[in-house]
């Protein structure tokens, strides 16, 4: 690492992606996924299906805005990683963590200021608490995501995983306390955002994390924000399909009432959450690994897609089979007889999760290639296509499957076409 003006700058990183780094992040991802399942499980057991649908909309709403903030993780990882292949020259420098703090504050103000326009339709219970938690939680997560990107860009995978786990464990701790004390819905709302302070805990506890947090990247703040804006746009679109899907489902519900989803919506949302988590939680958590990998393989990005795509496809195919055969039984045993879904529905939802996983993979390759417009366009096209399919005059379960299976295929085509042109 070299110094520029007495402040740490990127000069080198810890080398190409190794199996050990994937294993470390994979372990952290497994713990994070289990913690996420635990929070959803506790909420589903503690709340009736109708109450769970209210919690799930807030959980999805927070996932939507923090998913958009993951664009900061992607752009920071790319900037830090790419700088390792270039000489550090005099000129403007950007402190990503400070920029993230500014973005977080502006985002929180925008959410709070605009909330009278939309919060009444989205949050049916604990409306203003939900708005406040959403705003503050997003501000903290902007710093969280950027710090993850700085750790990924410098191959600090142990600290990267520790930051993920700290976030997840805090959420579970608050959820358990909610069940014990009887806080009900309000407690689960707090549990959803409680991990947004994990970045601060890691900076205080880890000297390596503090060193990464001080890093600068080449170029000015405006240059960083331009790249981040495309990544945030794409990440926001992806978040609508992934974490924010309950919100999209509610907004596009055909009856247009504030309680349009009800018990059936709670079952569908839980089924979507459970079938996609085994694929999308690890893949989302390993965005840093994937982008760093594609940056390292920058001369053959399309070929570099083959191995991870084959692995994801094999896991997804096994998941489709398992969901169809044992999914309904697991749902009844795990969450009670009120949560009933057919094996066919669960298998199709798992196939939809596989389509979104492939879109996430091609998106990571586009980010690594600095194809920011194509990356954003792919995710936006996929989200718009899914949203349009959700308003078809079909039963709730059918239109959910159609939207989640077909929409991502549009985005995959956009990404692959852009990567092919870039290679040429």
Automatic annotation (TrEMBL):
Listed GO CC annotations: plasma membrane
Ranges that cross the membrane? 25-44, 50-73, 99-119, 131-153, 160-181, 187-206, 227-249, 304-325, 345-367, 374-394, 400-420
Q: InterPro entries in the record, alphabetically?
A: Poly_Biosynth_Transport
Q: What is its main location?
A: membrane
> What keywords does the record list, in alphabetical order?
Cell membrane, Membrane, Transmembrane, Transmembrane helix
Q: What is the protein's membrane topology class? A: Multi-pass membrane protein
Transport: present as a keyword of the record? Answer: no
Q: Where in the cell is it found?
A: Cell membrane
Protein's recorded name:
Integral membrane protein
Q: Which organism is it from?
A: Mycobacterium cookii
């Amino acid at each position: 690492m070299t110094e520029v003006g007495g402040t740490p700058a990127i000069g080198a990183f810890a080398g190409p992606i190794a199996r050990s780094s994937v294993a470390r992040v994979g372990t952290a991802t497994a713990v994070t996924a289990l913690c996420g399942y635990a929070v959803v499980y506790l909420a589903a057991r503690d709340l009736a299906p109708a109450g769970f649908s209210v919690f799930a909309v807030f959980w999805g709403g927070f996932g939507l805005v923090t998913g958009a903030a993951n664009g900061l993780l992607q752009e920071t990882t790319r900037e830090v990683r790419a700088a390792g292949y270039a000489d550090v020259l005099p000129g403007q420098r950007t402190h990503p963590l400070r920029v993230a703090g500014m973005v977080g504050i502006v985002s929180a103000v925008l959410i709070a200021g605009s909330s009278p326009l939309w919060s009444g339709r989205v949050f049916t219970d604990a409306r203003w608490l939900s708005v406040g938690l959403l705003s503050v939680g997003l501000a903290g997560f902007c710093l969280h995501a950027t710090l993850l990107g700085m750790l990924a860009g410098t191959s600090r995978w142990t600290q990267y995983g520790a930051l993920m786990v700290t976030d997840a464990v805090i959420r579970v701790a608050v959820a358990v306390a909610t069940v014990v004390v009887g806080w009900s819905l309000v407690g689960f709302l707090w549990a959803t955002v409680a991990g947004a302070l994990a970045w601060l805990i890691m900076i205080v506890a880890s000297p390596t994390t503090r060193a990464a947090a001080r890093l600068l990247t080449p170029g000015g703040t405006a240059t960083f924000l331009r790249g981040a804006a495309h990544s945030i746009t794409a990440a926001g679109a992806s978040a609508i399909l992934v974490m924010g899907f309950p919100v999209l489902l509610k907004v596009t519900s055909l009856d247009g009432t504030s309680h349009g989803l009800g018990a059936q919506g709670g079952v569908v949302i839980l089924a979507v959450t459970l079938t996609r988590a085994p694929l999308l939680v690890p893949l989302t958590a390993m965005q840093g690994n994937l982008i760093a990998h594609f940056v390292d393989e920058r001369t053959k990005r399309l070929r570099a897609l083959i191995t991870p795509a084959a692995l994801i496809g094999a896991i997804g195919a096994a998941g489709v089979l398992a969901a169809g055969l044992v999914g309904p039984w697991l749902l009844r045993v795990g969450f009670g007889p009120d949560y009933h879904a057919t094996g066919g529905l669960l298998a199709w939802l798992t196939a939809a999760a596989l389509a979104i996983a492939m879109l996430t993979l091609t998106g990571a390759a586009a980010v690594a290639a600095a194809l920011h417009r194509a990356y954003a366009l792919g995710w936006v096209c996929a989200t718009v296509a899914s949203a349009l399919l959700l308003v078809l005059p079909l039963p709730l379960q059918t239109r959910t499957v159609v939207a989640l299976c077909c929409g991502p295929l549009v985005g995959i085509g956009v990404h692959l076409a852009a990567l092919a042109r870039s290679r040429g």
